[in-house]
Design goal:
With 448 residues, the protein is mainly alpha-helical. It is built from 16 helices and three strands. The chain has a three-stranded mixed β-sheet. The longest helix has 60 residues. The N terminus and C terminus are likely disordered.
C-alpha cells in the first residue's frame, strides 16, 4: 500500500493502531495480545489525582478485578436466566381468571418490564466479560449496542421503577381511600392509567440515550508486516455524551433525582401511610369479630322459637354475619396485597440504594473526572469499579425476585400457584410427612 493510501485510510478512521511486527502472526495476520504484566508498583498521581490508565491495567490488582468481574458476570447471566423463567411463571399465575384485578395486571406489567431488563442484562454481562460471544451475536449489526442494547437496558429499568410507584399509588387508594377506590373499580382498563405513563416517563427520561453513542471505524495498519490492513466498527461516545454540562446535569443530577430521590421519597411516604392504615384495619377487624360474635348471638337469641312462613330465607342475624364476613375477607385481601407491595418496595430499596449512592459519588467527583479527561488520564479508582460490578448484580437480583416475593407474601398467589401446577397433593402429603405423587390429570396438564 502506498503512503497516500495509508493516509486516506487513517483519515477515514476515528482511530488507528500500528502494532510492531513481532506482535503479528505471520500466518494468520492476527495481532498477538500483549502479555499481561503483574507489576505491583504504586500508581503515580498528579496534583489533580489523575493517573494513566495503562498504569492501573498493568497492576496485579486490576487482573484480580477482571477475574472478579468475569465471575460476577457469569452469575448475572445465570441469575437473569432464572429470573426470566420465574417472571414468566409469575405472569402465568397472575393471569389466571380467578385472580384478575388491577393490582395483578400491574404486577404482570412489572414482571414484563423486569424480564426485558434481564434479557438486556444478559447481553450486558456478555459484552463486559465475554466480548467474543457478544461480538459474534451482534456482529451483523454494529448499531445494536448504541441503538438497542444501551438505551433500552436503562429504559426498562426506569419503567420498572416508575411502575412500582404506580403500584404504590394503587395500593394506597385501596387501603387508605377505600370508598374512592370502589368508585374507580368500575372503570375498565384501569391498569393502563399506570402502565402507559410509566413507559412514557421512561422514554422521556432516556430519549437522549439514543444520541450518546456513535459508531466509528477502528483501523489496524499491518501492511508494513506484509499483511492487509484491517478495519472494524466500534462504539465511541458522541459529542453530546462528552459535553461537561450534559454529563453533570443529565447523566448525574437528573438521573439521581428521577431514578433515586423522587422514587425513594414517594415510596416511603406511600408505604408509611399504607402500613398505618393496615394496622388500623387489623384493629378494626379484631373489634368487628368480637362485636359480631356478641351481636350475632343476641340476634339469634331473639329469633329463637319464632316460626314464620319465611323460614326458608336467611335470618337477620345470618345476613349480618354474611355481610361482616365479606367485609372482613375483602379487607384481609387488600392488606395481603399491600404486604406484597411492601415486600417489593423493601427489595427495591435494598437493591437500588447502592446505585443511588454511586450516583451521589459521581456527582461529587465530576469536576475531577473532567480535569483528568482533559489530560487524557483517569480518575476513577479500582475499588469503585468493583462496586459497579456488584451493583449490576443487585439490579439483576431485584428484577429476579418477583416470584419468591409473591410466594412468600401472597396468599391468593400461593394458592393459585399450587392449583395451576397441580401441587395440591404435594402440600397435603408434605404436611403428613409423605412424598409427593403427581396425579395423571396433573401430568397431562403439565404436558399440555
Amino acid at each position: 500500500m502506498s503512503m497516500e493510501e495509508v493516509l486516506n485510510l487513517t483519515e477515514t478512521c476515528l482511530e488507528t493502531f500500528t502494532p510492531s511486527c513481532m506482535h503479528v502472526d505471520n500466518e494468520t495476520c492476527e495481532v498477538i495480545p500483549y502479555p499481561e504484566k503483574e507489576d505491583d508498583y504504586v500508581l503515580e498521581f498528579d496534583e489533580d489525582g489523575c493517573f494513566h490508565r495503562y498504569q492501573q491495567e498493568e497492576k496485579s490488582s486490576f487482573i484480580r478485578y477482571k477475574q472478579f468481574s468475569k465471575a460476577v458476570g457469569l452469575i448475572i447471566i445465570v441469575l437473569s436466566s432464572l429470573g426470566i423463567v420465574g417472571n414468566l411463571i409469575s405472569i402465568l399465575v397472575l393471569a389466571v381468571k380467578e385472580t384478575k384485578n388491577c393490582f395483578n395486571q400491574l404486577l404482570i406489567a412489572l414482571n414484563i418490564f423486569d424480564s426485558l431488563h434481564l434479557v438486556l442484562a444478559i447481553f450486558e454481562g456478555l459484552r463486559t466479560d465475554f466480548s467474543e460471544v457478544y461480538n459474534s451475536i451482534t456482529e451483523p449489526s454494529p448499531y445494536f449496542f448504541p441503538l438497542v442494547h444501551y438505551p433500552f437496558y436503562r429504559i426498562w429499568m426506569c419503567a420498572s421503577i416508575f411502575l412500582i410507584i404506580g403500584v404504590g399509588v394503587e395500593r394506597y387508594l385501596a387501603v387508605c381511600r377505600p370508598h374512592h377506590y370502589r368508585e374507580l373499580q368500575v372503570r375498565s382498563h384501569r391498569a393502563l392509567v399506570y402502565i402507559i405513563p410509566s413507559i412514557l416517563a421512561a422514554l422521556a427520561l432516556n430519549f437522549t440515550r439514543f444520541l450518546e453513542l456513535t459508531v466509528g471505524d477502528w483501523c489496524i495498519i499491518l501492511d508494513h508486516c506484509g499483511c492487509p490492513n484491517k478495519r472494524s466498527s466500534y462504539t465511541v461516545p458522541s459529542e453530546l455524551r462528552n459535553h461537561p454540562m450534559y454529563v453533570l446535569y443529565y447523566s448525574n443530577l437528573a438521573w439521581l433525582l428521577f431514578t433515586g430521590v423522587i422514587p425513594f421519597a414517594v415510596l416511603i411516604i406511600l408505604n408509611l401511610q399504607i402500613y398505618r392504615s393496615m394496622q388500623m384495619v387489623k384493629r378494626n377487624l379484631q373489634k368487628s369479630s368480637a362485636m359480631g360474635a356478641v351481636g350475632g348471638a343476641a340476634l339469634r337469641a331473639v329469633s329463637v322459637g319464632k316460626s314464620t312462613v319465611n323460614d326458608q330465607f336467611p335470618s337477620e342475624a345470618d345476613q349480618a354475619e354474611t355481610r361482616r364476613r365479606k367485609r372482613v375477607t375483602q379487607q384481609n385481601k387488600e392488606c395481603n396485597l399491600a404486604f406484597i407491595l411492601i415486600c417489593t418496595v423493601a427489595t427495591f430499596f435494598v437493591c437500588h440504594f447502592p446505585r443511588v449512592m454511586t450516583n451521589v459519588y459521581e456527582a461529587l467527583i465530576i469536576k475531577n473526572e473532567e480535569r483528568c479527561k482533559a489530560k487524557k488520564m483517569q480518575y476513577v479508582r479500582l475499588w469503585y469499579l468493583h462496586i459497579i460490578v456488584a451493583i449490576n448484580l443487585l439490579l439483576v437480583l431485584n428484577a429476579s425476585a418477583n416470584l419468591p416475593i409473591y410466594l412468600f407474601g401472597g396468599k391468593s398467589f400461593r394458592a393459585s400457584f399450587i392449583s395451576l401446577f397441580g401441587l395440591e397433593k404435594c402440600t397435603r402429603r408434605a404436611s403428613n410427612g409423605n412424598t409427593c405423587e403427581t396425579s395423571p390429570q396433573t401430568e397431562m396438564k403439565l404436558m399440555n
